[in-house]
Amino acid sequence: MSFEIADITLSSRFFLGTAGYPSPLILEQAIQASGAQVVTVGLKRQLAEGSGKPVSNVQGQGYFELIRQSGARLLPNTAGCHTAAEAITLAQMAREVFDTNWIKLEVIGDSYTLQPDPVELVHAAAELVKQGFEVFPYCTDDLVTCYRLLDAGCRVLMPWGAPIGSGQGLINPYALRTLRERITDVPLIVDAGIGSPMDAIQAMELGFDAVLLNSAVSNAHNPVLMAEAFKLAIDAGHKAYQAGIMAEQDMAVATTPVTGRPFVLA
Question: What is the model's pTM?
Answer without folding.
Answer: 0.87
